[in-house]
Design brief:
Blueprint (H helix, E strand, L loop, with lengths): L41 E8 L1 E2 L11 E2 L4 H17 L8 E9 L7 H14 L1 E12 L6 H10 L3 E7 L3 H7 L5 H13 L4 E8 L6 H14 L3 E6 L7 H5 L7 H17 L3 E4 L2 E3 L6 H7 L4 E4 L4 E4 L2 E5 L3 H9 L5 E6 L2 H13 L5 E2 H9 L2 H12 L3 E4 L2 E4 L1 H5 L1 H10 L1
Parallel strand pairs: 1-4, 1-11, 2-3, 4-5, 5-6, 6-7, 7-8
Antiparallel strand pairs: 8-10, 9-10, 12-13, 13-14, 15-17, 16-17
Helix pairs in contact: 1-2, 1-10, 2-3, 3-5, 6-8, 12-13
């Protein structure tokens, strides 16, 4: 590990409030996380804010409609979960170097509500003085004043869910903003002096041709966002389009052409393609997402949130009502957990590393290939086909390898 970040001043120590009366929260309230400790002292933290004004047809995330009273109930339950997690013995020696508020739509929170969430985290946990604090925002739900208040509350980064700059496609996606609103939201973030602004786009969408995608890419790159994420449409189980289907999907060669259009345009503008779906100006990579790709540990708060501590991967209940109900009974809302085996851990570390431009140490694959002729042959085939390359003691996928990564990873786990 590198140098530990310096720590922001903490509030005066205080007893953790009892949830059902009778003193501080007991460590045995941690349920399946009892006795689990991270192997590192520097972690990430994901906080799920599940609310959406309207659910998009392609979305399979844990979301909740903005029903009267439910958001207030969630904002009362979230500090209870913080209290339970803060009862873990590792809390006092661990620093959160990144905090990511995802959703859902975290920008439905009013500035005072966001400040309350971030203040609650600082009161209970050690947050690095230079921590990256990201808030996902939908364009229609922010303006300059709101983003200035978010920044004052501690946000250092916003991620704008733009998706497209074609109004017809945005309407088909169920988005509540248009191209003009997306441009205005980006301008508002710049005017609010948010240190870093990221933009999310989607390709492979119904009705999207290469020319239309190129136009969106060029316009967004003209804005000069610090970071750009671009995801090909996937019809995941749990989404409306995943279950009902959707007409008008472009053929595979069109989707491939859209991938290359972005990769070439971003490179020409000085963006580093540092992960399969992510591009950044120098020094502007997402620190939080790199926690995932580098197989580092992170805690989780909120309905549907997923965490990884020690060798334990876990996820919270997805229903916001159930999440609140459990916390009102002082029960940590973990729904599922598994302890990773050495083989699982090695496989995850390898595949996540190959998602990035940094790649993985040659030894990770070389040691396995030395005793596995099938893997050795497969790696030689990838290199001969220009999908994998070596540099400075590391192996990494090429740009073309990124494009074919899903198929390559299937091959990798089969050997």
């Amino acid at each position: 590990m590198g140098q530990r970040p310096s720590l922001a001043p903490l509030e005066a120590p205080r007893p953790l409030p009892a949830l059902t009366g009778g003193g501080p929260v007991a460590a045995d309230r941690l349920g399946p996380l009892t006795g689990v400790a991270p192997g590192d002292t520097s972690l990430g933290l994901y906080v799920h804010v599940p609310f959406c004004v309207k659910r998009c047809p392609f979305c399979s995330f844990a979301t909740s409609p903005l029903r009267e009273g439910l958001q207030d109930r969630y904002l009362r339950a979230l500090p209870r979960e913080m209290d339970l997690l803060a009862a873990a013995p590792w809390r006092r020696t661990t620093v959160f170097e990144t905090v990511f508020l995802g959703g859902g739509t975290p920008s439905v929170l009013e500035p005072a509500e966001l400040a309350g969430v971030l203040g609650g985290l600082r009161a209970r946990f050690r947050i690095g003085a230079d921590a990256e604090v990201t808030v996902e925002c939908n364009p229609e739900s922010v303006n300059r004043a709101k983003l200035e208040a978010y920044r004052a509350a501690g946000a250092t980064r916003v991620s704008l869910g733009v998706q497209s700059l074609d109004d017809a496609i945005l309407g088909h996606l169920g988005r509540l903003h248009g191209a003009r609103g997306a441009r205005a939201a980006f301008a508002a973030a710049r005017e609010a002096s948010v240190p870093q602004v990221s933009v999310d786009l989607m390709y492979g969408l119904p009705g999207l041709d290469v020319a239309g995608w190129q136009q969106t890419v060029d316009q967004v790159l003209d804005w000069r966002p610090d970071h750009l994420s671009a995801y090909g449409l996937t019809l995941d189980e749990g989404s409306r389009w995943g279950s009902d289907g959707v007409p008008g999907l472009p053929p595979e060669d069109t989707v491939v052409a859209q991938y290359w259009a972005l990769a070439r345009s971003a490179a020409a503008r000085g963006y580093e393609h540092y992960e399969i779906s992510n591009y950044a100006l120098p020094g502007c990579r997402s620190r939080h997402n790199q926690v995932y790709w580098r197989w580092r540990e992170y805690a989780a708060l909120g309905p549907g949130a997923c965490g990884f501590l020690g060798r334990v991967r876990y996820s919270n209940v997805r229903s916001t009502e159930r999440y609140c109900e459990l916390l009102e009974r002082a029960v940590l809302p973990v729904a599922e957990h598994e302890v990773l085996t050495d083989r699982q851990a090695a496989g995850e570390r390898l595949i996540l590393g190959l998602r990035t431009r940094d790649g993985v140490p040659e030894g990770w694959l070389g040691a396995r290939a030395a005793t596995d002729p099938a893997l050795a042959a497969r790696l030689e085939g990838w290199q001969a086909a220009g999908l994998l390359e070596g540099a400075e003691g590391r192996l990494r996928l090429t740009e073309r390898g990124f494009l074919l990564s899903d198929a390559l990873f299937v091959e990798l786990v089969q050997v």
